[in-house]
Amino acid sequence: MTDILPSYVRGQWWAPSEEPGQEAAPVVVRDSSTGEEVCRLSTAGIDLGAVLNYARTTGQASLGALTFHQRAVLLKRFAQVLTERKQELYDLSRRAGATERDSLSDVDGGIGVLFTYSSKARRELPDGRVYLDGPVEVLSKDGSFLGRHVYTRLPGAAVQINAFNFPMWGALEKFAPAFLAGVPSVVKPASPTAYVAEAWVRILVETGLLPDGSLQLVSGSVPDLFEHLRLGDLVGFTGSASTAERLRSHECVQTVGVRFTSETDSINASVLGPDAVPGTPEFDAYVRQLLVELTTKAGQKCTAIRRAIVPAGQVDALVDAVRAKIAERVVIGDPRAEGVTMGPLVSLEQREEVRRSVAALVDGGGRLLLGSTEPPEVVRSDGSTGVAERGAFVEPMLIGFADASAPAVHQVEAFGPVASVLPYATVEEAAELVSLGGGSLVTSVATNDPSVAATLLSRTAAYNGRILFLDRDDARTSTGHGAPVPHLVHGGPGRAGGGEELGGMRAVLHHMQRTAVQGSPEMLTALTGVWHQGAASRTDRHPFRKPLSELAVGDQVVSASRAVTLDDIETFARFTGDLFYAHMDEEAAAANPFFPGRVAHGYLLVSWAAGLFVDPEPGPVLANYGLENLRFVTPVSPGDEIRVVLTAKQITPRETDEYGEVRWDAVIRNQDDELVASYDVLTLVAKEPAGVSP
Ligand code: NDP
User: Fold this and answer.
1) pLDDT in tens, 622-631
2) Cα–Cα distance between 254 and 260 in angstroms, integer?
3) How far is the C-alpha of 635 from the C-alpha of 599, rounded, in Å?
4) Nearest alpha carbon to residue 648 among 521, 550, 530, 523
5) Which residues, other chains included, contact 554 with Cβ-Cβ below 8 Å and sequence gap of 6+?
6) Which of 134, 185, 511, 602 has the highest local Cβ count within 10 Å?
């Protein structure tokens, strides 16, 4: 008998202290290929209320001590350590039926999520703990009352209930944004692959880098978990629609306000465009993609293609092409054997579930065009071959439907290497079929015809979280129908669970609360760390002489004035080659409703502004790397004067560098104090004066 797989809770590894009684018999987890026992799961006696409290207290405190960037740097370290120990995870995943390629999506995919979130966070989030959303709203005439939206982290625990098919990637795509937001995670893996989740958690625990309470793992069932949830906690669920529905209806979600999002099984579609006939690169790409989706993870992917929607005249050609590819490429067997390209399903229970779903599809009007539910010929771990006697093996199947609108095909998900083939006559009909799925995570379209793509986009986007257009240009570089990327939405409407919170920085913000904050410029500056116009400023010393260790928001330089002459405008025009009539032709310029006559180039003004505000000697300012939000407001005519006020607005020391970023608020005004231009200047500034090492 194997040991009980431990949980990692309240800062230590935990397992039931006594052999659980009959009423709480452990769940036995078996090897997907051989049926051997891998481990047992039991949470008998676990105090889930205390687990959540540990997250809300210790976890919140330790993550709250870090800024977004410090958390991002830790995510990168986690990714590096997991990369070093990748082979252990690959080896273990084989027990769950994962081939080398399957682990590429789960193990490497999970590590990739950490790397991506780490670098995106350092680029897109400030090095603070509060995220500012949108521009300042000026709410009083004199500018002394402002409003803006801020995001602050939720005060509770992020409970992540995961599916069995991606024990690593599926968990890390939730853990990474929660960690960045500063919300501690309680990870609940699905039972059949809980031992893979235990392995990556153990690796992270062994680094000693995890902030206390930032990650807890519960290996086994959590029957009363929802009883302990309260406002400020959130749940991210992946799994079946029925479990999602049950959990969502819990009182803590319905009335208390626990955020609940789900990503559930969806009947994803892939449309072969009418132009993508055999012999075109799009047809080939479509066939390749369908094969990948059928066989990766043995089709146990929430994003896999379940409905191949194909021009009526191409059904036979498609089935023939897939049959040929399967014969050429697919070797079913134990992932530990050489050359195996498709492993078993995760468990015998799951195989029974797939068989039941295939029977339901056939009863609903389908006909098996390819493959069967009988045990297939497989390669065993010792390299011998024969009909599978043990293990959860099934072969790839295509099920044809003469009536493409038969309800079963749009409702029954066979969570395995199974896709249905649906014929269509017009692109509009293809779009209608896509939408009959009732909401999907993803639809892909193989077409080289933008009008086909445009029709499908406009008619199906509302039913999909993601749409991938496959053509001859991206066929080789596409990340694929079934591969969500951490930059983009992973979720979908309706049957897909309704989620759109995963993907990009919105996933971080999902773990935070957006609040409208109103107050004076001084107060908003103090609360956000970002200087707001109207707040106090200092002009004691030129701010370009100050390294980050001395610079503060509000440090300011007010320039002298400079008069603009016609000669200057003409010199600039000839020097740059910008002879646009508004600068060079008095009559034409005066005829333009926006100009009183010839005016100075906006770029001349911005260049002059730089000349007016810089302090030219070598110093801590290292580089100017751009401008943002540049607006020209009032035109400047010969005879006008301009001056500029430059104020340090936001200071972001870079965690891993000897310098940081300074965003400066730049405002150019004319002799009448009218606003000429406003923009942000972005610079890199040394943390310490030259010669001083930190
Ligand atoms: P489930 O919905 O049963 O389980 C999903 C997760 O929810 C598991 O971690 C499970 O834990 C957990 N869970 C179950 N009951 C509770 C509860 N009362 N409180 C808290 N957590 C709970 O899905 P399965 O894994 O059994 O898969 C069934 C079907 O779901 C598949 O056949 C497929 O159709 C679909 N599916 C969809 C996926 C997707 O990514 N969208 C992924 C995987 C499956 P435990 O395992 O311990 O019961």
Assistant:
1) 999 999 999 9
2) 9
3) 6
4) 530
5) 525, 531, 535, 536, 537, 538, 647, 648
6) 185
Burial (Cβ within 10 Å: 0-12, 13-18, ≥19) of residue 52: buried
Report how far apart, in Å, the C-alpha atoms of 205 and of each of 85, 104, 163, 201 are: 13, 23, 22, 6
Separation between Cα atoms, residue 170 and residue 599, nearest integer Å: 58
% of residues, the chain, pLDDT over 70: 98
Active-site residue, 263 included: yes
What domains are there in the chain, each with its CATH number?
A: 48-264 (3.40.605.10), 269-484 (3.40.309.10), 537-686 (3.10.129.10)
Structure tokens at 681: 């200047």
Distance CA 551, CA 473 (A): 49
| Residue 485 dihedral angles phi and psi, to the nearest 5° | -110, 145
Q: Which residues contact 595 (CB under 8 A, 6 or more apart)?
A: 582, 589, 635
Q: Where are the alpha helices (DSSP H) in 19-168?
A: 48-54, 60-64, 68-84, 86-94, 100-103, 109-124
Query: Other C-beta atoms within 10 Å of 64: how many?
Result: 15
377 within 8 A of 330, measured Cβ to Cβ: no
Residue 692 has pLDDT above 70, yes or no: no
Atom 38 in ligand 1: residue holding the nearest Cα: 239
Proportion of the chain above pLDDT 90, given as a percent: 91
Residue type at 452 in one-letter notation: V
Half-sphere exposure of 540 (CA within 13 A, CB side): 8
pTM value is 0.92
Taking 80 as the threshold, does the pLDDT of residue 616 lie above it? Answer: yes
Give the length of the chain: 694
Q: How far is the CA of 324 from the CAs of 269, 329, 398, in angstroms?
A: 22, 9, 13
Cα of 163 from ligand 1 centre, angstroms: 5
Query: Contact at 8 Å (CB) between 443 and 286?
Result: no
- Shortest-distance atom of ligand 1 to CA 301: 40
* Rounded-to-integer distance, Cα 167 and Cα 188, Å: 10
Mean pLDDT of the chain: 95
**How many Å apart are CA 129 and CA 275, to the nearest integer?**
51
Pair 383, 334: CB distance under 8 Å: no
* 238 CA distance to ligand 1 middle (Å): 7
Candidates 78, 119, 73, 108; CA nearest to 505 is 119
Burial class of residue 188 in the structure, from the number of CB atoms within 10 Å of its CB (0-12 exposed, 13-18 middle, 19+ buried)? buried
Phi, psi at 471, each rounded to 5°? -140, -175
Residue 478, CA distances (Å) to 173, 289, 383, 610 in order: 20, 10, 34, 43
Q: Which of 28, 30, 41, 164 to mutate to test the pocket of ligand 1 (most atoms within 8 A of CB)?
A: 164
Ligand 1 site residues (CB inside 6 A) read: 161-165, 188, 190-191, 221-222, 225, 238-240, 243, 247, 263-265, 302, 353, 413, 415
End-to-end CA distance of the chain: 56
ipTM score of complex? 0.93
Q: In this predicted model, what pLDDT tens digit does every residue of 566-581 receive, in sequence order?
A: 999 999 999 999 999 9
Would you say residue 32 has pLDDT above 80?
Answer: yes
Backbone phi and psi for residue 602, each to the nearest 5 degrees, phi listed first: -60, -40
pLDDT score of 137 more than 80 = yes
pLDDT at 689: 87
Q: Is 641 known to be catalytic?
A: no
**pLDDT for the residue 205:** 98
Where residue 119 falls among pLDDT bands split at 50, 70, 90? very high
